[in-house]
Amino acid sequence: MIGNQTTISFNNSGDSFFSNESLPILPYRFNILYGRNGSGKSSISRAISAYVSDSSMESPHIEFDEPLNDDDKKHIFVFNEDYIEKNIKVEQDGLHPIIMLGEQVELDLQIKEYEAVLNKILEEKSQLVCSLNTEVIGSVANKYEDIHKQLLKQLRKDGNWADRERAIQGKISKSDVNDVVLGNIIQTGKGTLSFQTLSEEVLGGIKIIEQTKGQQPIEWNCPTLTNDIDITYVNKLLCVHKEIPEFSEREKNIMDIIQGKYGRYIGDSQVVFNDENVNVCPLCLRPINSVGKESVIQLVKRILNKEAETYKNQLAEAMAKFVEISLKIVPNIDNKLFSTAIKNLERDIRVYNSEINKAKSILKERMVNIYLPYNKLIDEDNFNKCFHNVEESLDHLDGLVKNFNQVVEKQKTFKENISKQNKHLAYYELESLIKEYSDLSENKNNLIQLLKKRKEDEERVKKQLNNLIAQKQQITIALDFINQALSYVFFDKDRLQLTKENGIYTLLSRNKDVKPSTISVGERNIIALCYFFASMFVDKNNKDKYKDASIIIIDDPVSSFDFENRVGVISLLRWMTEQFIQGNPNTKILIMTHDIQTVFNLQKVRTELEENKDGYLELVDKGISPKKGLFNEYKTIMIAVFEFACNKNADKKSSVIGNQMRKLMEAYSSFVYARDFMSISHDNDVIKNIPGNKRLYYKNLMTRLVLNGESHEQEAANAMNITGFKFSKEEKIIIAKSIIMFLYYINPKHILSYIPDAIDVLSQWSNDGFDESSID
Questions:
Q1: How many CB atoms are closer than 10 A to CB 329?
Q2: Which residues are paired to 32 by β-bridges?
Q3: How far is residue 373's CA from residue 436's CA, in Å, rounded to a whole number?
Q4: If you count DSSP H runs as helices and E runs as strands, how many of each does the chain have, helices first?
Q5: 386: number of CA atoms within 13 Å, CB side?
Q6: Phi and psi for 24 in degrees, rounded to 5?
Q7: Hey, which of 105, 480, 560, 749 has its CA 20 to 30 A from 120?
């Protein structure tokens, strides 16, 4: 909880700005901290800001005398350059300057980010629209349309898909070609069959469809053929050799008969001669008795032995297997569709039957001549081939009949199958174009989807952008207070004024628009300071504005201001400081500055608000030094510069004398003239008291030597020691003499009132001991 005893200290955690000792910066209710640029003031304010916002800060480490909770942190306010950068922005909107404050700045940053995102989306959207514009030569859509037209044209071409589909569907004109048809062909693909096979099936199917139109199913059962003839066995049988036995003269004669033209009867001899009624030989017609018949029977049996009989039986059995195929198995179909297949089947049957008869002739011949060597064989390969040809022709005809019957009975299904094959065939024919078309189609669809996504993104970002704009317009600030504070600073209510119209804040000067380029850094900072105080009053009524215990840190509030504005800012600070201190006894304020004149002015304010408390704090040498009063400090500095000019302890003080000389000049110009040293060193009314031969030196050279620039960066680089690295000790002594003599020339009573014992030295320097005009 923030209380009257609450203090903030810094511990060094490796930060070069601070010493290892604790640095208390809130010992009083109203605290003034003086420090040259680069001494660590900005680090203090930023560290406190980081502490309030819970940002990670490794160094320096802040310590409160008692812990603060999150609600306490809401009552710690820091004004510094970061605050100004974050909370105020000036832009041009047509002829009007737009002022954005606080949350408006953050919202405006978000708005610009969304606008950049929206512009990128619109640019991408425009490129996508161009790619999808068929009128743009070379665009994806243009190439797509070109290939699309080529595909449709090819599908309509004579002999291609549309022409074949007309025949399949039995139409007079070609089938329609459209995107649906093209999509189906692409989706169907080319299938698994070869192009040649597909062509034959589609064209054959078309013929079947045409020839089966109005037909009845064919009644025919395809017979099953079997071939159990073992040609290898038969050929081996034909090659069997029988030995001829030893015969008598009569037996040889009978053998000649057997081998002659009557040999076919020899097998019947036993039946003939066993008949009692046969008394005459059927061959020689001579009478024969029973003894003679028996003799003949025995003789024949001897010639035709059992082995020979068995062999002949084997030949007979083999020959019995050679059976012709009847032409009756060929159906009688009166349809041109089957004429070729029927002719081929009849031809193959006749060829096969011819092979059957050839084989039977060979067997018969062998049966007659069983004792002679035999070299005629059946051509097994040819025989089997002929049978296989019959089977193939029969199967082909059977397939045609079945297809025919299927078409007749289920013509719709058959047409669908042939139509699908027609799509496969069309894919084959246009494969290269389809591949290019599919790639372009995929690319186009991707672009369409991407365009759809970009349109959705556009709507989403526009919605978010409009919400941010609405939020920005709805933000209200304490406009009356800010204008009151501005009039307090400028002592003129019309000098600068904020107005609000349609949720937009504009800046007027003398009731006229101000160009952003004419708004100075100082004016911007004044507006920021006014808003800083106004932001503390959010959601508070007038009587409760200052009642909460707060810690207020203000870093360099009067930098970059001319004298008139500095007076106004000091007046504003006095007003606000008084209100906050009186509003709550526990509120504490810290104002930091690098400007000695501001320290002087704030000291007067502090003296008015808190009696007998005219001191201030100085941040120097990585530590904080309390100062009792500016006038005592002024005298100390003047004596130090004078003693250095007299070369007293010059070696020891050389490193810090530059800062002391500047403090001396700034304090004097503030006390006496309420102006900065730069202006009085160029003021003719001031330097008229300087001897004529020395005026040019003090007017020009002193400015370069002592007031070595105002920028934070340059002064930080010089470590605020204006003579620290440019001049030798002897040159610094000359500069110190120059400053003392400058003050002596323009106001001798003033300098002698602080160092009365210096009159002799100063007179000597003035007369002949120190000639400034000789310094280049």
A1: 16
A2: 591
A3: 76
A4: 32, 14
A5: 20
A6: -75, 130
A7: 105
Q: What percent of the chain has pLDDT over 90?
A: 26
At 603, list the tokens.
């000291």
Please give the Cα distance from 693 to 699 (Å, whole number): 11
Pairing of strands 8-11, 23-24: antiparallel
Instruction: Indicate the pLDDT class of residue 408, thresholds 50, 70 and 90.
Output: confident
H or E, element range at 276: none
For the residues of 177-246, what is the DSSP string, one character each?
A: --HHHHHHHHHH---SS-HHHHHHHHHHHHHHHHHTTT------PPPPP-----HHHHHHHHT---PPPP
Instruction: Give me the mean pLDDT over the 323-344 stretch.
Output: 90
Place of tokens 């059992």: 306
Q: How confident is the model at residue 130 (pLDDT cuts 50, 70, 90)?
A: very high
Q: How far apart are CA 60 and CA 466, in angstroms?
A: 42
Six-digit token pair at 683?
């003021």
Strand order in the sheet with 8-11: 23-24, 8-11, 61-64
175 three-state secondary structure: coil
More reliable by pLDDT, 259 or 83: 83
| 43 neighbors 645 (Cβ within 8 angstroms) | no
Q: Could you tell me the CA-to-CA distances from 464 to 102, 114, 456, 633 in Å, in that order?
A: 20, 8, 12, 59
Burial class (CB in 10 A: 0-12, 13-18, 19+), 336: exposed
Would you state the structure tokens that stand for residue 769, as one six-digit string? 């001991």
Is 304 strand, coil or helix?
coil
Rounded to whole angstroms, the Cα distance separating 207 from 214 reads 14
Q: Quote the pLDDT of residue 591.
A: 92
Alpha-carbon torsion, ordered 511, 517, 523, 526, to 10 deg: 100
Query: In DSSP terms, which residues pair with 34 in a beta bridge?
Result: 593, 618
Using CA atoms in the order 273, 275, 280, 285, what is the torsion angle rounded to 10 degrees?
Answer: -60
Strands (E), 54-178: 61-64, 76-79, 88-93, 96-101
The pair of three-digit structure tokens given for residue 455, joined into one six-digit string: 């349109």
Length of the chain in terms of residues written: 776
Structural tokens at position 246: 């030893």
Would you tell me the crossing angle of helices 431-474 and 179-188 to the nearest 10 degrees? 110
Instruction: Return contacts of 682-690, CB within 8 angstroms, 24+ apart.
Output: 686/746, 687/746, 689/745, 689/746, 689/747, 690/742, 690/745, 690/746
**Of the candidates 636, 620, 576, 635, the residue with the CA atom closest to the CA atom of residue 602:** 576
Q: What does the pLDDT average to over 714-738? A: 60
Confidence of residue 203 (pLDDT cuts 50, 70, 90): very high
**Encoded tokens for 373:** 């060597």
SS3 754: helix
Angstrom distance (rounded) from CA 753 to CA 759: 10
What does the pLDDT average to over 258-270?
56
Of the chain, the percentage scoring pLDDT greater than 70 comes to 79
pLDDT in tens, 595-653: 777 887 788 788 777 755 667 888 876 677 777 766 567 788 888 889 898 888 777 77
188's CB contacts (< 8 A; 6+ apart) are 420, 423, 424, 427
Q: Bridge-partner residues for 590, per DSSP?
A: 31, 553
Q: In the structure encoding, which two tokens stand for residue 257, read together? A: 């008969």
The strand pairing partners of 618, in sequence order, are 34, 625
Count of Cβ atoms closer than 10 Å to residue 575 Cβ: 16
Average pLDDT, the chain: 80
Residue 700 DSSP label: I
Joined together, the tokens standing for residue 31 give: 């605290």
CA–CA gap between residue 635 and residue 174 (Å, rounded): 115
User: In angstroms, how far is the first alpha carbon of the chain from the final one?
Assistant: 61
Task: For residue 666, give the H/E element and its range.
Answer: helix 657-668
User: Which amino acid makes up residue 715?
Assistant: E
How do beta strands 588-593 and 551-555 pair? parallel
SS (H, E, C) 230-247: CHHHHHHHHCCCCCCCCC
